[in-house]
Conidiophore development protein hymA (Penicillium chermesinum), 382 residues
Amino acid sequence: MAFLFGRGRSRQPADIARATKELLLRIHETPSSKTEEDLAKQLSQMKVIVQGTQEVNTSPEQVHALVQATLQEDLLYELSHSIHLLPFEARKDTQTIFSHILRFRPTSYAADKDPPVISYIVHHRPEILVELCRGYLQSQSAMPCGVILREALKFDVVAAVILYDQSKDGEPAVRLSELKPNLPQRGDGIFWHFFDWIDKSNFEVSADAFTTFREILTRHKSLITAYLATNFELFFGRFNEILVQSESYVTKRQSIKLLGEILLDRANYNVMMAYVESGENLKLCMKLLRDDRKMVQYEGFHVFKVFVANPNKSVAVQRILINNRDRLLRFLPKFLEDRTDDDQFTDEKSFLVRQIELLPKEPIDRNRPARDGHSANTATVA
């Protein structure tokens, strides 16, 4: 057995990381089945170090040494850049290795601090995150990259880099210290590509991209509220045009549901108020109520109710509702009337009918003082 122990001692984490990087470079230049096989073996050894097996426990010292070696060799970038070229099992191993390394904390490391690899990435190598996002460009890498991204997105600094990066292909990505959250974006950074990845990719890629997109938009509330406030027109313009009006039923339904979640989140109150001031947004929403598919109608209803329930409706929104009052009062009582077991939905429909009945005859500009007591009372009721 001595030869086994001798061989084990020669395969230190630094050696494995170095060999893996060399093979990754080779697979780009001269791909071959032999290179793929050797690379799969190296990644399998890395996975054993970070995860262990039923027979072998992990060693914090070995894991720490591997983490340091991967950073020294810039291996995380090379893996994220090359994952689509790896065989299936090697991609799964890469996903496991990445996820363990991202959350690894040395024994003496403070529990309230971001893991060291997360800090390293956002301060020194954010290109790793950009490459992981670009994993959605190939179906082979979409799901493993998505799993890694969602592990990284547990930390708000990662979400911030993805949201605010505006680098182009071949340019350095934005470092955490370089973020300019108050500067409106152009709409060509890595985050904005998610709209097309969701809308134009095959089902598996689209579904995974949407899961990551939703994670970005719902997990770190204060970050997203500020981002949406600064980029309101650009974001909701694309969201409405590309996702809410997607030809894909699944994308359309999920996007309307996500829109409702964003608007009804208390953290996004100011964003919601800005959204429901728009007459165009209301027209889009009313169009959803007439969709042939019941679940699209249902999700659209949950956005429509925000417009109607808002006590401070804009003139544009009031005008649309007033002009369509009679049609809405005929339409809503029969709308999805087969949902007899959904008491909340039934109550909400009744509430909206009452609110529409109470609308004034003409829109009231709440930015102007009421001319007489009657106008003031009408405004209050509406």
